[in-house]
């Protein structure tokens, strides 16, 4: 045993830790998350580091099996950029880590993280960093003077150091106050959420009578608790023309289409013969690869939709919707394209955790008047009226941006069509998008327009470029442009946290008080 330990010690002593190839097989590397780059703090953009995959809590009929090696996740094993041997799949099961390691990987409040990083950075300025300086010279150096300059008079150096330390401590104290205030806010939010949870349960018991009350309206503006969303969303949205039997049939047929696509990619049969044998669904089979690519781009910081059960479920819902379109008698409904709606489906599945409920809810949302007409672009009179009203309110809430949009020739309807149909899931993070759905299902089609007005006012500093540059910010490829040079984290449009942004949305049309 002693000889083995000595041997292991000698291996570690000679290991170059910059090379993964030279790490010994028995070396333990703990799962410690990296912090956000300080560059993201300087830009005041909220950067989201990837969090390890965690098994989703299941509601309803979703399978409880892990996607790791499960036959139900065949599509993600074949079409996902990940594989069973990838780093992502190894992170999937939290049971592989100790409780301490799992705690380190939990998502934390970004404002708390920012304060902690600033405090750590300020504390690091207290110490002299001069690794190449001799010990003799080190005695005459201070943290406030460059090492290549001659030392100051001892009295002057001492005074300068005291002033510097006092300045640093003042900044640290300010950050500590911010940190304490943020923690207090989080505690108050947690208490309010518990009260709201009890209130929502009371509403659900007597829904038809209580949902119309002003107190209930305050509840949905504060947000539906995550564990009650499945009950509230489905109860409020009601039932579609889809029957349970239809939904089950569409999902089963979608499963068969996915299996056919997997067989084609793995077995590589003759394309013409394969197309002839599957002529009815060949276009849907071809769409599996494109849909898979789109799913992997959805909320990558969460590492939920890129591999496993969630990946396969989202893919099944998309194909099931296409099957429903094919049987629909509405030619307009058949025209709806899913390319820019993948993120919205992911938001629904993330909160509902059930394929049947997600499909039903998605059909309901795209059937809403505003979203439907924006997707099919048929009722020009209705859309022109919407664009005219939006243009009028934009002139009041953001007059400078309104003038600039007119100067560069950007039409209001273009901005609306690029953002509203996906309920802003192509530019905002999961938490904010979930809160938007909470409110939209109650407030109706005027709500997305309020959101867009608040969003424009919030990020107007990004909207003063050319027409193309504005469309890059308020367009379908917003996140792709925003993260083009990002390597260590994933960014969304910076609108603050969900509570802050929802407050902006609610107050965006209120008259500003004129100072006396």
Looking at the structure, what is the overall shape? globular
List segments where confidence is low: pLDDT < 50 over at least 5 consecutive residues. 5-44, 51-55, 57-69, 83-107
Relative strand content: under 5%
Mean pLDDT: 79
**DSSP strand count:** 2
Question: What structural class is derived from the secondary structure elements?
Answer: mainly alpha
Helix content: 55-70%
Strand arrangement in the largest pleated sheet: 1-2
Distance between the termini: 84 Å
Radius of gyration: 28 Å
Written as H for each helix and E for each strand, in order along the chain, the element string is HHEHHHHHHHHHHHHHHHHHHHHHHHHEH
Q: What is the helix tally?
A: 27
The main sheet comes to: 2 strands, antiparallel
Protein name: Rab-GAP TBC domain-containing protein
GO cellular component, one term: site of polarized growth
Coiled coil: 165-203
InterPro entries: Rab-GAP-TBC_dom, Rab-GAP_TBC_sf, Rab_GAP_TBC_domain
Explain what this protein looks like in three dimensions.
It comes from Ogataea parapolymorpha (strain ATCC 26012 / BCRC 20466 / JCM 22074 / NRRL Y-7560 / DL-1) (Yeast). This is Rab-GAP TBC domain-containing protein. Residues 223-444 form the Rab-GAP TBC domain. There is one protein chain. This protein is mostly helical and 516 residues long. Among the domains are: 2-71 and 89-104, no CATH class; 110-234, no CATH class. The protein is built from 27 helices and two strands. Strands 1-2 form a two-stranded antiparallel sheet. Helix 20 runs parallel beside helix 24. The termini are far apart.
